[in-house]
Amino acid sequence: MSEANFETDLITLPRFLLDNLKDIKCATGEFTLLLNALQFAFKFISQTIRKAELINLVGLAGHANSTGDEQKKLDVLGDEIFINTMKGSGNVKVLVSEEQDDLIVFKSEGGNYAVCCDPIDGSSNLDAGVSVGTIVSIFRLLPGSTGSIKDVLRSGNEMVAACYAMYGASTHLMLTTGNGVNGFTLDTNLGEFILTQKNLVLPPSREIYSINEGNTKYWDDSIKQYINKLKGEDDVNAKPYSARYIGSMVADMHRTFLYGGLFAYPADSYKSPNGKLRLLYEAFPMAFLVEQAGGKAVNDKGERIMDLTPTHIHDKSSIWLGSKEEVDKYLKHIGKK
Ligand code: AHG
Ligand code: MN
Ligand code: MN
Ligand code: MN
Protein backbone atom coordinates (compact mmCIF):
# COMPACT_ATOMS: atom_id res chain seq x y z
CA MET A 1 0.00 0.00 0.00
CA SER A 2 1.48 3.38 -0.94
CA GLU A 3 0.38 6.95 -0.28
CA ALA A 4 -3.33 7.64 0.14
CA ASN A 5 -4.00 3.92 0.63
CA PHE A 6 -3.56 3.30 -3.08
CA GLU A 7 -2.81 -0.39 -3.62
CA THR A 8 0.07 -0.88 -6.03
CA ASP A 9 0.83 -4.54 -5.42
CA LEU A 10 -2.27 -6.20 -6.87
CA ILE A 11 -2.61 -9.97 -7.04
CA THR A 12 -4.22 -10.75 -10.37
CA LEU A 13 -5.66 -14.18 -11.10
CA PRO A 14 -2.67 -15.22 -13.31
CA ARG A 15 -0.26 -14.04 -10.58
CA PHE A 16 -2.26 -15.92 -7.95
CA LEU A 17 -2.10 -19.12 -10.01
CA LEU A 18 1.65 -18.81 -10.53
CA ASP A 19 2.26 -18.02 -6.83
CA ASN A 20 0.15 -20.97 -5.70
CA LEU A 21 1.07 -23.61 -8.28
CA LYS A 22 2.63 -25.89 -5.68
CA ASP A 23 -0.61 -25.95 -3.63
CA ILE A 24 -2.86 -26.66 -6.59
CA LYS A 25 -3.53 -30.40 -6.89
CA CYS A 26 -3.90 -30.33 -10.65
CA ALA A 27 -1.19 -27.74 -11.24
CA THR A 28 0.10 -28.02 -14.75
CA GLY A 29 0.73 -25.39 -17.36
CA GLU A 30 -2.36 -26.75 -19.08
CA PHE A 31 -4.57 -26.16 -16.04
CA THR A 32 -3.35 -22.57 -15.80
CA LEU A 33 -4.17 -22.05 -19.47
CA LEU A 34 -7.62 -23.54 -18.91
CA LEU A 35 -8.30 -21.10 -16.06
CA ASN A 36 -7.06 -18.31 -18.25
CA ALA A 37 -9.59 -19.30 -20.92
CA LEU A 38 -12.32 -19.51 -18.25
CA GLN A 39 -11.66 -16.01 -16.99
CA PHE A 40 -11.87 -14.74 -20.56
CA ALA A 41 -15.29 -16.43 -20.96
CA PHE A 42 -16.46 -14.79 -17.71
CA LYS A 43 -15.33 -11.34 -18.89
CA PHE A 44 -16.96 -11.84 -22.29
CA ILE A 45 -20.27 -13.00 -20.79
CA SER A 46 -20.14 -10.21 -18.19
CA GLN A 47 -19.72 -7.50 -20.84
CA THR A 48 -22.45 -9.05 -23.02
CA ILE A 49 -24.96 -9.10 -20.15
CA ARG A 50 -24.20 -5.49 -19.24
CA LYS A 51 -25.17 -4.24 -22.70
CA ALA A 52 -27.94 -6.80 -23.42
CA GLU A 53 -30.88 -4.44 -23.17
CA LEU A 54 -29.24 -1.99 -25.58
CA ILE A 55 -28.53 -4.53 -28.30
CA ASN A 56 -31.81 -6.45 -28.36
CA LEU A 57 -30.60 -9.40 -26.32
CA VAL A 58 -33.44 -9.56 -23.81
CA GLY A 59 -36.24 -12.09 -23.93
CA LEU A 60 -36.74 -15.65 -25.00
CA ALA A 61 -34.86 -17.55 -27.70
CA GLY A 62 -37.93 -19.65 -28.47
CA HIS A 63 -36.66 -23.12 -27.47
CA ALA A 64 -36.49 -25.23 -24.31
CA ASN A 65 -33.36 -27.02 -23.10
CA SER A 66 -33.20 -30.69 -22.11
CA THR A 67 -34.12 -29.99 -18.48
CA GLY A 68 -37.28 -28.22 -19.63
CA ASP A 69 -36.20 -24.57 -19.11
CA GLU A 70 -37.30 -22.00 -21.68
CA GLN A 71 -34.04 -20.62 -23.07
CA LYS A 72 -33.41 -16.89 -23.02
CA LYS A 73 -31.43 -15.31 -25.88
CA LEU A 74 -28.59 -14.80 -23.41
CA ASP A 75 -28.69 -18.48 -22.35
CA VAL A 76 -27.96 -19.37 -25.97
CA LEU A 77 -25.33 -16.67 -26.46
CA GLY A 78 -23.61 -17.41 -23.12
CA ASP A 79 -23.49 -21.06 -24.11
CA GLU A 80 -21.91 -20.20 -27.47
CA ILE A 81 -19.32 -17.94 -25.84
CA PHE A 82 -18.49 -20.65 -23.33
CA ILE A 83 -18.19 -23.48 -25.87
CA ASN A 84 -16.07 -21.43 -28.28
CA THR A 85 -13.74 -20.29 -25.50
CA MET A 86 -13.24 -23.80 -24.16
CA LYS A 87 -12.76 -25.21 -27.66
CA GLY A 88 -10.31 -22.46 -28.55
CA SER A 89 -8.24 -23.05 -25.41
CA GLY A 90 -7.20 -26.50 -26.64
CA ASN A 91 -7.19 -27.67 -23.00
CA VAL A 92 -10.70 -29.12 -22.84
CA LYS A 93 -11.69 -32.46 -24.34
CA VAL A 94 -15.19 -32.93 -22.93
CA LEU A 95 -17.80 -30.27 -22.28
CA VAL A 96 -21.23 -30.53 -20.65
CA SER A 97 -23.49 -27.50 -20.76
CA GLU A 98 -26.97 -26.94 -19.35
CA GLU A 99 -27.97 -25.67 -22.78
CA GLN A 100 -26.71 -28.68 -24.80
CA ASP A 101 -28.72 -31.93 -24.88
CA ASP A 102 -25.59 -34.09 -25.22
CA LEU A 103 -22.04 -33.81 -24.07
CA ILE A 104 -19.55 -32.40 -26.56
CA VAL A 105 -16.24 -34.16 -27.26
CA PHE A 106 -13.86 -31.82 -29.07
CA LYS A 107 -12.15 -33.51 -31.99
CA SER A 108 -8.96 -31.44 -31.97
CA GLU A 109 -5.87 -33.00 -30.46
CA GLY A 110 -4.94 -32.48 -26.83
CA GLY A 111 -7.04 -31.39 -23.89
CA ASN A 112 -6.93 -33.30 -20.63
CA TYR A 113 -9.94 -31.79 -18.90
CA ALA A 114 -13.71 -32.22 -18.80
CA VAL A 115 -15.61 -29.03 -18.00
CA CYS A 116 -19.29 -28.85 -16.99
CA CYS A 117 -21.01 -25.48 -17.06
CA ASP A 118 -24.16 -23.54 -16.41
CA PRO A 119 -23.40 -20.66 -18.81
CA ILE A 120 -26.05 -18.35 -17.32
CA ASP A 121 -27.40 -19.25 -13.90
CA GLY A 122 -30.52 -17.37 -12.83
CA SER A 123 -31.56 -16.53 -16.37
CA SER A 124 -35.18 -15.88 -15.34
CA ASN A 125 -33.77 -12.76 -13.65
CA LEU A 126 -31.89 -11.47 -16.70
CA ASP A 127 -34.45 -9.07 -18.14
CA ALA A 128 -34.87 -7.36 -14.75
CA GLY A 129 -31.14 -6.65 -14.47
CA VAL A 130 -30.82 -8.86 -11.37
CA SER A 131 -27.50 -10.64 -10.66
CA VAL A 132 -26.83 -13.84 -12.56
CA GLY A 133 -23.68 -15.93 -13.00
CA THR A 134 -21.79 -18.78 -14.61
CA ILE A 135 -21.01 -22.01 -12.69
CA VAL A 136 -18.26 -24.47 -13.62
CA SER A 137 -16.92 -27.82 -12.44
CA ILE A 138 -13.68 -29.32 -13.75
CA PHE A 139 -12.56 -32.96 -13.87
CA ARG A 140 -9.31 -34.35 -15.22
CA LEU A 141 -9.95 -37.00 -17.90
CA LEU A 142 -9.79 -40.58 -16.62
CA PRO A 143 -6.40 -42.24 -17.22
CA GLY A 144 -6.11 -43.26 -20.88
CA SER A 145 -9.40 -41.59 -21.86
CA THR A 146 -9.71 -39.80 -25.17
CA GLY A 147 -12.94 -38.18 -24.03
CA SER A 148 -16.20 -39.92 -23.17
CA ILE A 149 -19.25 -39.62 -20.95
CA LYS A 150 -17.40 -41.62 -18.27
CA ASP A 151 -15.17 -38.58 -17.74
CA VAL A 152 -18.13 -36.72 -16.21
CA LEU A 153 -20.43 -39.40 -14.74
CA ARG A 154 -18.27 -39.50 -11.63
CA SER A 155 -18.53 -38.75 -7.94
CA GLY A 156 -18.28 -35.10 -6.98
CA ASN A 157 -15.21 -36.04 -4.94
CA GLU A 158 -13.31 -36.41 -8.22
CA MET A 159 -13.60 -32.76 -9.25
CA VAL A 160 -10.22 -31.04 -9.38
CA ALA A 161 -11.59 -27.51 -9.37
CA ALA A 162 -14.80 -25.51 -9.33
CA CYS A 163 -15.65 -21.86 -9.71
CA TYR A 164 -18.40 -19.42 -10.40
CA ALA A 165 -18.57 -15.90 -11.73
CA MET A 166 -21.31 -13.61 -10.47
CA TYR A 167 -22.33 -10.68 -12.64
CA GLY A 168 -23.64 -8.19 -10.09
CA ALA A 169 -22.76 -4.58 -9.30
CA SER A 170 -19.23 -5.91 -9.84
CA THR A 171 -18.17 -9.17 -11.44
CA HIS A 172 -16.89 -11.62 -8.84
CA LEU A 173 -15.06 -14.92 -9.28
CA MET A 174 -14.90 -17.59 -6.56
CA LEU A 175 -12.44 -20.40 -7.14
CA THR A 176 -11.39 -23.60 -5.44
CA THR A 177 -8.75 -26.06 -6.57
CA GLY A 178 -9.25 -28.20 -3.47
CA ASN A 179 -7.16 -26.02 -1.20
CA GLY A 180 -9.60 -23.45 0.20
CA VAL A 181 -11.58 -20.78 -1.63
CA ASN A 182 -10.31 -17.51 -3.00
CA GLY A 183 -12.43 -14.64 -4.31
CA PHE A 184 -11.53 -12.19 -7.05
CA THR A 185 -13.23 -9.01 -8.29
CA LEU A 186 -13.01 -7.83 -11.89
CA ASP A 187 -11.32 -4.46 -12.28
CA THR A 188 -12.97 -3.40 -15.51
CA ASN A 189 -10.34 -0.73 -16.21
CA LEU A 190 -7.48 -3.18 -15.93
CA GLY A 191 -9.47 -6.07 -17.39
CA GLU A 192 -8.11 -8.32 -14.62
CA PHE A 193 -9.63 -10.32 -11.78
CA ILE A 194 -7.96 -9.05 -8.57
CA LEU A 195 -7.71 -11.16 -5.40
CA THR A 196 -10.16 -9.62 -2.90
CA GLN A 197 -11.08 -12.55 -0.61
CA LYS A 198 -8.04 -14.62 0.32
CA ASN A 199 -8.89 -18.00 1.88
CA LEU A 200 -12.54 -17.19 2.33
CA VAL A 201 -14.21 -18.91 5.29
CA LEU A 202 -17.99 -19.14 5.50
CA PRO A 203 -19.42 -17.79 8.76
CA PRO A 204 -20.26 -20.92 10.81
CA SER A 205 -23.86 -19.84 11.38
CA ARG A 206 -26.28 -17.06 10.45
CA GLU A 207 -30.03 -16.75 10.85
CA ILE A 208 -30.84 -16.42 7.16
CA TYR A 209 -32.74 -18.95 5.02
CA SER A 210 -33.00 -18.83 1.25
CA ILE A 211 -35.62 -21.03 -0.39
CA ASN A 212 -38.50 -20.61 -2.87
CA GLU A 213 -41.24 -20.65 -0.27
CA GLY A 214 -43.89 -20.42 -2.98
CA ASN A 215 -43.42 -24.18 -3.39
CA THR A 216 -44.42 -24.92 0.24
CA LYS A 217 -47.62 -26.77 -0.63
CA TYR A 218 -45.63 -29.30 -2.68
CA TRP A 219 -43.01 -30.03 0.00
CA ASP A 220 -42.87 -33.03 2.32
CA ASP A 221 -44.25 -32.35 5.81
CA SER A 222 -40.76 -32.63 7.28
CA ILE A 223 -39.52 -29.74 5.11
CA LYS A 224 -42.60 -27.64 5.89
CA GLN A 225 -41.96 -28.24 9.62
CA TYR A 226 -38.30 -27.29 9.31
CA ILE A 227 -38.94 -23.97 7.56
CA ASN A 228 -41.69 -23.19 10.10
CA LYS A 229 -39.16 -23.89 12.85
CA LEU A 230 -36.72 -21.37 11.29
CA LYS A 231 -39.53 -18.82 11.30
CA GLY A 232 -40.06 -19.51 15.01
CA GLU A 233 -43.63 -20.67 14.50
CA ASP A 234 -43.35 -23.46 17.08
CA ASP A 235 -41.97 -21.22 19.86
CA VAL A 236 -43.39 -17.78 20.72
CA ASN A 237 -40.05 -16.70 22.21
CA ALA A 238 -37.88 -17.75 19.26
CA LYS A 239 -36.33 -15.04 17.09
CA PRO A 240 -37.31 -15.76 13.48
CA TYR A 241 -34.72 -16.14 10.74
CA SER A 242 -34.59 -13.59 7.92
CA ALA A 243 -35.71 -14.78 4.47
CA ARG A 244 -33.57 -13.82 1.46
CA TYR A 245 -34.28 -15.28 -1.98
CA ILE A 246 -33.00 -13.82 -5.23
CA GLY A 247 -33.79 -16.79 -7.47
CA SER A 248 -30.29 -17.00 -8.97
CA MET A 249 -28.39 -19.75 -7.17
CA VAL A 250 -25.12 -17.94 -7.82
CA ALA A 251 -26.34 -14.71 -6.23
CA ASP A 252 -28.04 -16.47 -3.30
CA MET A 253 -24.87 -18.47 -2.71
CA HIS A 254 -22.56 -15.49 -3.09
CA ARG A 255 -24.45 -13.80 -0.26
CA THR A 256 -24.27 -17.04 1.72
CA PHE A 257 -20.47 -17.24 1.26
CA LEU A 258 -20.07 -13.72 2.60
CA TYR A 259 -22.80 -13.47 5.25
CA GLY A 260 -23.49 -17.12 6.11
CA GLY A 261 -26.89 -18.81 6.25
CA LEU A 262 -28.69 -21.65 4.53
CA PHE A 263 -29.71 -22.06 0.88
CA ALA A 264 -32.01 -24.91 -0.12
CA TYR A 265 -33.87 -26.21 -3.14
CA PRO A 266 -35.70 -29.32 -1.92
CA ALA A 267 -37.57 -31.86 -4.01
CA ASP A 268 -41.29 -31.22 -4.38
CA SER A 269 -44.26 -33.28 -5.46
CA TYR A 270 -45.15 -31.13 -8.46
CA LYS A 271 -42.41 -29.35 -10.45
CA SER A 272 -39.21 -30.91 -9.14
CA PRO A 273 -39.61 -34.47 -7.78
CA ASN A 274 -35.79 -34.91 -7.78
CA GLY A 275 -35.00 -31.33 -6.88
CA LYS A 276 -34.39 -28.63 -9.49
CA LEU A 277 -30.66 -27.99 -9.46
CA ARG A 278 -28.47 -30.04 -11.75
CA LEU A 279 -25.67 -32.06 -10.19
CA LEU A 280 -22.82 -31.60 -12.63
CA TYR A 281 -22.93 -27.86 -13.12
CA GLU A 282 -24.90 -26.46 -10.15
CA ALA A 283 -24.91 -28.75 -7.10
CA PHE A 284 -21.38 -30.25 -7.42
CA PRO A 285 -19.39 -27.05 -7.99
CA MET A 286 -21.29 -25.14 -5.27
CA ALA A 287 -20.90 -28.06 -2.84
CA PHE A 288 -17.15 -28.21 -3.53
CA LEU A 289 -16.78 -24.45 -2.97
CA VAL A 290 -18.93 -24.51 0.18
CA GLU A 291 -17.02 -27.40 1.76
CA GLN A 292 -13.71 -25.79 0.88
CA ALA A 293 -14.92 -22.65 2.70
CA GLY A 294 -15.80 -24.66 5.82
CA GLY A 295 -19.52 -25.16 5.11
CA LYS A 296 -21.61 -28.22 4.26
CA ALA A 297 -23.80 -29.45 1.37
CA VAL A 298 -26.31 -32.31 1.55
CA ASN A 299 -29.49 -33.46 -0.20
CA ASP A 300 -32.98 -33.80 1.35
CA LYS A 301 -31.99 -37.18 2.82
CA GLY A 302 -28.85 -35.76 4.42
CA GLU A 303 -26.46 -37.45 1.98
CA ARG A 304 -23.33 -35.47 1.20
CA ILE A 305 -23.70 -33.93 -2.30
CA MET A 306 -20.02 -34.59 -3.12
CA ASP A 307 -20.57 -38.35 -2.59
CA LEU A 308 -23.29 -38.58 -5.25
CA THR A 309 -22.65 -39.85 -8.79
CA PRO A 310 -24.90 -38.81 -11.71
CA THR A 311 -26.12 -41.43 -14.18
CA HIS A 312 -27.10 -38.85 -16.81
CA ILE A 313 -25.37 -35.56 -17.58
CA HIS A 314 -28.40 -33.44 -16.64
CA ASP A 315 -29.33 -35.34 -13.44
CA LYS A 316 -30.82 -33.19 -10.69
CA SER A 317 -30.60 -33.26 -6.93
CA SER A 318 -32.29 -31.68 -3.95
CA ILE A 319 -29.85 -29.52 -2.00
CA TRP A 320 -29.28 -27.84 1.39
CA LEU A 321 -26.02 -25.94 1.68
CA GLY A 322 -24.28 -23.13 3.49
CA SER A 323 -22.97 -22.48 6.99
CA LYS A 324 -21.90 -25.65 8.80
CA GLU A 325 -24.13 -25.14 11.84
CA GLU A 326 -27.18 -24.30 9.70
CA VAL A 327 -26.82 -27.50 7.67
CA ASP A 328 -26.14 -29.49 10.87
CA LYS A 329 -29.39 -28.12 12.29
CA TYR A 330 -31.28 -29.45 9.25
CA LEU A 331 -29.49 -32.81 9.61
CA LYS A 332 -30.56 -32.95 13.24
CA HIS A 333 -34.16 -32.22 12.23
CA ILE A 334 -34.18 -35.23 9.86
CA GLY A 335 -32.48 -37.45 12.48
CA LYS A 336 -29.11 -37.60 10.68
CA LYS A 337 -27.04 -36.01 13.43
P1 AHG B 1 -30.85 -21.60 -14.55
O1 AHG B 1 -31.18 -20.15 -14.73
O2 AHG B 1 -29.41 -21.91 -14.83
O3 AHG B 1 -31.79 -22.54 -15.26
O4 AHG B 1 -30.93 -21.95 -13.01
C1 AHG B 1 -32.08 -21.61 -12.30
C2 AHG B 1 -32.00 -22.16 -10.94
C3 AHG B 1 -31.14 -21.39 -9.95
O5 AHG B 1 -30.41 -20.34 -10.40
C4 AHG B 1 -32.11 -20.87 -8.94
O6 AHG B 1 -31.62 -21.07 -7.67
C5 AHG B 1 -33.36 -21.65 -9.16
O7 AHG B 1 -33.32 -22.16 -10.46
C6 AHG B 1 -34.59 -20.81 -9.01
O8 AHG B 1 -35.69 -21.59 -9.22
P2 AHG B 1 -37.16 -21.09 -8.88
O9 AHG B 1 -37.46 -20.00 -9.87
O10 AHG B 1 -38.00 -22.32 -9.06
O11 AHG B 1 -37.15 -20.58 -7.47
MN1 MN C 1 -31.99 -22.81 -17.28
MN1 MN D 1 -28.57 -22.57 -12.99
MN1 MN E 1 -28.46 -21.69 -16.73
Walk me through the structure.
Residues 203-330 form the Fructose-1-6-bisphosphatase class 1 C-terminal domain. One of its GO terms (biological process) is fructose metabolic process. Its cofactor is Mg(2+). Belongs to the FBPase class 1 family. The strands form four sheets. This protein has an eight-stranded mixed beta sheet with strand order 4-3-5-6-7-8-9-10, with helices on both faces. It has a five-stranded mixed beta sheet with strand order 12-11-13-17-15, sandwiched between helices. The protein has helices at residues 13-19, 29-50, 73-89, 221-230, 249-259, 279-292, 324-333, and strands at 60-64, 70-72, 92-97, 104-105, 113-121, 132-140, 161-167, 171-176, 181-187, 192-197, 208-210, 242-243, 262-265, 277-278, 296-298, 316-317, 319-322. By secondary structure, the chain is an alpha+beta fold. β8 (171-176) and β9 form a beta hairpin. The protein starts with 12 loop residues before the first helix and ends with a helix. α2 (29-50) packs antiparallel against α3 (73-89). The protein contains seven helices and 17 strands. 2,5-anhydro-1,6-di-O-phosphono-D-glucitol (AHG) binds next to β5. One manganese (II) ion binds at residues 118, 121, 249, 282.
Write the layout of secondary structure elements.
Elements: H1 13-19, H2 29-50, E1 60-64, E2 70-72, H3 73-89, E3 92-97, E4 104-105, E5 113-121, E6 132-140, E7 161-167, E8 171-176, E9 181-187, E10 192-197, E11 208-210, H4 221-230, E12 242-243, H5 249-259, E13 262-265, E14 277-278, H6 279-292, E15 296-298, E16 316-317, E17 319-322, H7 324-333
Parallel strand pairs: 3-5, 11-12, 11-13
Antiparallel strand pairs: 1-2, 3-4, 5-6, 6-7, 7-8, 8-9, 9-10, 13-17, 14-16, 15-17
Helix pairs in contact: 2-3
Residues 69, 98, 118, 121-124, 212, 247-249, 265, 276 line the site of 2,5-anhydro-1,6-di-O-phosphono-D-glucitol.
